[in-house]
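Treating backbone geometry as a discrete language has practical consequences that deserve illustration. The sequence in question and its structure tokens are set out directly beneath this paragraph.
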Amino acid sequence: MKMAGNKYDLFIIGQPSLDVNTDHLEHTVHEIGGAVIYSSYAAANLGHKVCVYSKCNPETIDNSLIFKGAPNVDVIPAKSALSTSIANNYLSADKEKRTCEVISRIDPYTPSEIPEVDAAIYHIAGLMNGDIEESVIELSAKRAKVAVDVQGFLRCVESNKTMQFYDWPRKKELLPLITFLKTDAAEAEVMTGTSDRRKAAKILYSFGAKEIMITHNTEVLIYDGEDFYTEPLKPRNLSGRSGRGDTTFASYITERLTHNIPEALLTAAATVSLKMEKAQPFMGNREDVENYINEFFR
């Protein structure tokens, strides 16, 4: 299916999630989350043109409603028998440690259903292994630059519905197709065997990905095969910790279309720092981010 008309900076393939989030004090909130939400809002509110291919059961999640607050986002809805729903139990105040249990999940994305969207970057943004078939990466690489958040391939559902991280068997085969690879520090260790983020980035680069992003609660690191680049995170509070990595990654990869690595990374670090202060997707704009940079990063 070829989509006529618009050209986009970013095309995101991934589903929203009905999240049941319980903090360390056992306070529970129900909210819509998922990489596609945080990523699309971040990129769009910086001024980038975004298209999302969002799969859910329309009786439980309204695609048109959840993206309503994001300008520059066009939604291609996809139906599934069930929507994804995940229970997250945070074990600490900083939300760095959590357990996750799957309540329900979508029918997988398959290559035959992916619309042909004219976009500079295809962003593969699943939430757990099996959400998006690996062959979608191969298809996407024939159309555009590919960005992958490895969470969607490392996070596996156990028989008791909990999720655990395991290495990606086809990483050496598929990473050469990926321009932008995003992991957090724990995922990088799973894939490389080292907790040293710089060593891990070098190993991931050696597997074939072009630009490696490793996020941490203190900083964001980029490695391009020649140099390391880092920017600290400087939120004034952690009310909006959920979606940290998604916001960072989408901001960075879309900024890289017109900026060098240090400039794109600075914008991404400031965008996510500002986002983390409120429990919602990034709702600011480029001027807000530039003001934040001038006040806290200069």
About this structure: Residues 8-297 form a domain with the UDP-N-acetylmuramoyl-L-alanine:D-glutamate ligase fold (CATH 3.40.1190.20). The two ends are 46 Å apart (CA to CA). The mean pLDDT is 95. The chain has one domain: 8-297.
